[in-house]
Amino acid sequence: MAISDPELMKALQEVKDPEIPTISIVELGIVTVAERREKLAYVELTPTFVGCPALDMIRSEVENRLSKVDGVEKVSVQYVMSPPWTSDRITSEGRKKLIEFGIAPPISQSEEQWIQAPPCPYCGGEEGDVHNLFGPTACRAIFYCRRCKEPFEGMKPV
Amino acid sequence: MNQLSRGMDISDPIYQKALKDLLFQLADDELCIGHRDSEWLGLAPDIEEDVAFSSIAQDEVGHATFYYERLAEIGEQDSDTLAFGRGSHERRNACLTERENGDWAYSIVRHFFYDTFDALRLEALAKSSYPPLAEGVAKIQREERYHLLHMHLWFVRLCLAGGEARKRMETAIWKVWPDISGLFSWGAWEEELLQRQVIHTSSLVLQQQWEERIRPVFAEAGIEWIEAMPEPVKKGRLGDHFPELNHLLGELSSVYALDPAARW
């Protein structure tokens, strides 16, 4: 990752995921570059999913927030595919906040195996089933906890 | 763009023509199948499949947008115009993707066969000499894995279920089969794409790879392999399509056509 401007990163910490308002885009791991080029704040973001409909919203929120940082006159936000976002980019703080919101953070999966259920975000139970590989957003799947008998959402490992 | 300098020479007119044709194939395939997926919303056999097919539709249309944007980057019109504003003869999708959904069995069989092909096609593009394409493919592969897992599961379960499910699956497989070979074509520029390493697998090898992957699943599902694979009736990759594509485009573009210059 390029060396990012700490002041810009601090401001980006206030930009939350539109679907999961407890987690910031920094914690989600989608900010790959945030640097000053004189009076321009230049930001590169890597989408969680290529077709994520929140991309434009996130872009305008980043523009709004960074334009309020001292010394910034212009903001440029680029979406890039490289490096590709993977669920390993979510920070440990981000993983905690996902659980607080009731979404299980992704667990690492082997390529050969079918998708495994992550621990339940409510009771921590590990005896879960995959209920649906697809959920309310592209990046989430639906699981079922056999211990507390609750369905729950989890971020898809990608 | 320094990204481009790492790849082949985009200013070479043949490289550019071949690349654009390929990007149209990718984009048009994903847009058509994504639109067909979205037609299941509210009609799928259960609510979980409503969710799944909507989510898959969103992924596929998102991938189409990605490919259209790469076209816009190298001199084509903006992605909306490319998605909504082109006639059927300009479309480069394989005819399989434009077919109507039919019943659930047909949709599952079509999608499973398409996703298996798409996974192989993405592998053939992963080391493309055009870096923006290779980078997007690396990302898209991670998403497509889920589609394939889902369709594979349905394919095998419905075949093994016996009764009406199996009968419908057998009918669907026979119905889909004549459209399969049209998937493997790389269009009018295959030689050039291979020479310039935009792609790394010929259409012939792609078809062999597809058969190698599908055969064991037929065995798993207790379905007898169909030896003959007929030549496609219409060559979608060359712009020759069934009337179903016109209907699809009419529906897909109905809002856009009201006022193509409107900003949303």
Automatic annotation (TrEMBL), chain A:
InterPro entries: Fe-S_Maturation_MIP18, FSCA_dom_sf, MIP18-like, PaaD-like, Zn_ribbon_PaaD
Domain of life, source organism: Bacteria
TM ranges: none
Domain PaaD zinc beta ribbon residues, every copy: 114-156
Sequence ranges assigned to domain MIP18 family-like in this UniProt record: 8-77
UniProt xrefs under NCBIfam families: PA_CoA_Oxy4
Protein name per the record: Ring-1,2-phenylacetyl-CoA epoxidase subunit PaaD
From TrEMBL, chain B:
InterPro entries, alphabetized: Aromatic_CoA_ox/epox (IPR052703), Ferritin-like (IPR012347), Ferritin-like_SF (IPR009078), PaaA_PaaC (IPR007814), PaaC (IPR011882)
Gene Ontology cellular-component annotations: cytosol
Listed GO biological process terms: phenylacetate catabolic process
Pfam families attached to this UniProt entry: PaaA_PaaC (PF05138)
Protein name as it appears in the record: Ring-1,2-phenylacetyl-CoA epoxidase subunit PaaC
Originating species: Marininema halotolerans
Biological classification of the source: Bacteria, Bacillati, Bacillota, Bacilli, Bacillales
